Amino acid sequence: MAEITQTDREAVTSRLEKDFGVPTNYAKDYAMIAEFLSVESLWQPALQRLSDTLESHYWTFMLSEHNGRGSAGSNLMTRAIALEAVNQGFQPHVGIVYAGFVDPGKFIDYVKNCAFWKDAVSSNHGEHSHSFQWLMIAREVKTTEKIRTLYAHSVVYKSKGNYYHTGHGNNEQIYLWDFLCDCFNHGVSDPDYTKHMVTNTCRSPTFLNKHLFQQDYWLSQYLKGRYEARKWNDPSQEFPTSIKEYAKEKHASKKNFTDQGGNVFQRDLKAPLAAHSKPDWAPFGEPLGGEKQGVVEKTKIGWGEGNVTLKVKYQGSGNNTILFKIATGENTEGLESKAVKFKVKKVGNDYQAYAISSV
What we know:
- The protein is of the alpha+beta class.
- Helix content is 36%, strand content 19%.
- The protein has a four-stranded mixed β-sheet, covered by helices on one side. Strands 10-11-12-13 form a four-stranded antiparallel β-sheet. Strands 7-8-9 form a three-stranded antiparallel β-sheet, with no helix packed on it.
- A hairpin with an 8-residue loop joins strand 7 and strand 8.
- The radius of gyration is 22 Å and the shape is globular.
């Protein structure tokens, strides 16, 4: 045995039934999830598609909350993730931070309630790695049961046998969550999914984070910029940066956050952030970036002066960045325009535009 492959679905299903006590209908779905996270030809293109979607959500929030002075609301990545989670059937609480290792009972409660959180433990694990895993799963894996249900039940089942746990340095019983998506990426030179809680696949959040840092996705560029700004070691370096104290100091004094004990901080907001009904830009007319003019239209986007209707016309391109004119006011006719830089990107057969900055 070694890593899970596309020929192992029945064997994994059987293992989950016998060793973890998972009912057959759930076991088949969980085996599909394990296969998806293990096979690069499945998860790699899915991760790039997720990056494209989160980019769209991120810049939609940025544009809708721009105050005309070059700034926007906070926690844009967390909220972009939350928006996509809502789109995929979750109802995540926006604002849960693990500033260190969390008590197992508290962790289990959060998973059972389908919470998404920010992991502020070490730089190699990645703050949002588990969110990326489960968003990919929800978008790409065609299970019988709802992904939300499978997510919540992943902490219900525990192995009868022992698996090598790198973090504890011994063999022990593990939860199905650990087997599926919380394996280590070190400690064993030749991982075997029947023996080790170790893998060189996306079943490990650290492996996923490392992969992102080796790519040129939008999500990769975002993470690299975040790490560089905070002087954190990227996950390819031998020694990760501990970010627990950074998170504790930041959230202990942050407005609307409450210390839940056990290294957990939680925003007081009791409901998920309201989602935009149409978060993506949609193309009109000729595709942007071509020789002919094209128009991108988005309605009810706040731009400093309240909710307005925006029409954006293509004026010219250079280095994939285009300068647009955006009219402000109740309608777009006869009003003074602002110049705004946008990036235009082809996604499938569509062209989407994302705000970069006002100029």
